Automatic annotation (TrEMBL):
Domain of life: Bacteria
Name of the molecule in the record: 1-acyl-sn-glycerol-3-phosphate acyltransferase
Domain Phospholipid/glycerol acyltransferase: start-end pairs: 105-222
Protein's UniProt keywords contain Lipid metabolism: no
Pathway: Lipid metabolism
Keywords: Acyltransferase, Transferase
GO biological process, one term: phosphatidic acid biosynthetic process
InterPro entries registered for this protein in UniProt: Plipid/glycerol_acylTrfase (IPR002123)
A GO molecular function held by the record: 1-acylglycerol-3-phosphate O-acyltransferase activity
Species name: Leptospira gomenensis
Amino acid sequence: MNERILQRKDLCKTVPYESGLVLTYETPADKKRSWLDSVFRETDLAFHLGYFREIFKSRKLALNGTYDNAAWCESSARILDLLENCGGKVKVEGIEKIISVEGPVVIAGNHMSTLETFVLPTFITQHKPITFVVKESLTRGSLFGPIMRSRNPIAVGRNNPREDLTTVLEEGTKRLKNGMSVVVFPQSTRTTDFNPAEFNSIAVKLASRAGVPLIPVALRTDFWENGKIIKELGRIFRNRKINITFGDPLLPNDDSRKNQNLLLSFVVSNLKRWGTNVRES
């Protein structure tokens, strides 16, 4: 196997697929914290200043109609820079799994924090146009709303599971048929520990209905904790590593129950590998 460690400058460029190629991204061992984060080392000031600076910049582009796929990738990559400048150590494995599949896919995994929503586009959008299944309220806010709406998301209310399932299956299939991949977190909310009983089969059902592969993703992102009042304003924990791992594609013509078990097993096994708490079902 030929392994290539991607650098920051590679992340928003198209990487051609080669059989047997393994693509990984890892924060350089000698990466130093920014001067601002070093000055305010006991606080999260540098992180939150950088975060809101990027949000306002993206919002302006969205309102101007210029927040396209390339702009989204660069914005996401700057959030990745910000995390690393504030002490984050990131490792992303299995990027080649995304490139190896032609056409749109469903990407599904656990949902731990807001970090993955901001960082995943760095590693996906240069290979495939994507959108997310999101909570409807995120599309209406004056700050995040213009950004979210510009990404043509699938918005669900999170109050009626049956209605949400119908929306995801109908709207998701439309996006996939038009060549756009869909990221789904089959949990009702973000949690730092993982409860397999709350991990539903909506992503597998969508992939099966649209006839596209499903790529599992396991995430350890509690570096950026969920805020108690506003989830996006949580603390950061510089001693916690950030891990993202993509798995082998699951084919839509395989048994749906089997694919759900494989997806769940992939998430659970990686979370346990990283020392994340997994509740016993």
